[in-house]
Design brief:
Elements: E1 4-8, H1 21-29, H2 33-41, E2 45-47, E3 50-51, E4 64-68, E5 81-84, E6 88-93, H3 110-120, E7 131-132, E8 141-147, H4 150-161, E9 166-174, E10 180-187, E11 196-198, E12 205-216, E13 220-227, H5 234-241, H6 254-259, E14 271-279, E15 286-290, H7 295-305
Parallel strand pairs: 8-14
Antiparallel strand pairs: 1-4, 2-3, 2-4, 5-6, 6-8, 7-8, 9-13, 9-14, 10-11, 10-12, 12-13, 14-15
């Protein structure tokens, strides 16, 4: 048993990415990967005072890491239900929670959180059906809807297929992003094991993303993104392929790392499903919902606002150097 470990993340090695939480803990204690993973999942590890559930998280230099076996297990997710009637329920999902179980034994998903909220109010949760109509990434926070009946499920799915659901996201991307419409065809494997866009005729699924710059930060941009279609990782892929990966992105950053260098460290992916709007498929009433940025997103945003602005490189003189001057005429 490991009673307690305290360590400070070391400086980053030149040309190397920031180390993962698992690598630092294994190096400091000799623990196995499975042991480190278990400690994280049980809420026994914190970074700068915040619980760190992901052993693959890259840790910024100077961060304080604490492992404490005696730490009380974290309380179950408290997820607010922002809309509910007899047919539809919408919650404000935190980052780090899966929308649905991806493995048979996975617990703590958004569906579990809804049932927990029902139980907390004395309602019977085991007999109420929940049907999936759309998903948001595990690392993305914000609004997600579920149907409570097959009739509502079919109606909501019809709205999503027809692109009649308003969905906007707030995100922070590297660099200075301009307003634009992005359209491509997405495939599950672009050739290197990652999802991405293809130019091969007849392949992929059409994906359209509308990006609006909201605030220019020193070396990033706060953006509002509207989805016209909803493909897996669509926002993350489209902005990354433009050379503007999201802050906190750990998958679609290979090209950026090769061209620019290491991305900005962030404890979470800065992507938030901020609005959800639709005409109720059974009552015909307009449902318009919004979700504020979570506190940890706001804290990271303030850190990005406080970063020093890059020093502009003065333009090179158009004059020729002495080595390049033309010889005088004889």
């Amino acid at each position: 048993m490991v009673a307690k470990i305290d360590l400070i993340a070391p400086p980053r090695q030149k040309g190397q990415p920031a180390p993962t939480l698992a690598a630092l803990l294994r190096g400091a204690s000799g623990l196995s990967w499975s042991r480190v993973q278990a400690l994280c999942e049980r809420g026994k590890v914190s970074i700068d005072g915040e619980i760190a559930l992901d052993p693959a998280l890259r840790v910024r230099p100077g961060a304080s890491i604490v492992v404490d076996e005696r730490r009380a297990a974290p309380r179950p997710w408290t997820v607010p239900i922002v809309f509910e009637d007899a047919h539809v329920v919408v919650i404000d999902k935190p980052a780090g929670m899966s929308s649905v179980p991806y493995e048979k034994r996975e617990a703590g998903t958004a569906m579990d959180a809804i049932r927990d909220a029902w139980r907390a109010t004395g309602r019977t949760a085991t007999t109420q059906a929940l049907h999936v109509v759309h998903r948001i990434d595990k690392d993305t926070s914000g609004l997600i809807a579920f149907a409570k009946s097959k009739l509502a499920e079919r109606g909501l799915q019809r709205l999503f297929r027809a692109h009649d659901v308003e969905r906007t996201y707030l995100c922070v991307a590297h660099g200075q992003v301009a307003d634009r419409r992005i359209e491509s065809r997405l495939v599950d494997d672009r050739g290197d094991g990652l999802r991405g866009s293809t130019r091969t005729p007849g392949r992929g699924k059409r994906a359209v993303t509308h990006v609006r710059a909201v605030e220019a930060l020193p070396d990033t941009t706060l953006c509002e993104v509207r989805l016209e279609t909803g493909k897996t990782h669509q926002i993350r892929i489209h902005l990354s392929e433009l050379g503007h990966p999201l802050v906190g992105e750990r998958v679609y950053v290979r090209d950026y790392q090769r061209r620019v260098g290491e991305p900005i460290d962030s404890p979470r992916l800065l992507l938030h499903a901020a609005t959800l709007g639709f005409v109720h498929p059974l009552t015909d009433e307009r449902v318009q919902l919004s979700s504020p940025l979570p506190p940890e997103f706001e804290r990271m945003l303030e850190r990005l606002r406080a970063r020093p602005r890059p020093v502009a490189t003065p333009p090179r003189s158009s004059r020729s150097t002495s080595a390049g001057r033309p010889r005088p005429r004889r």
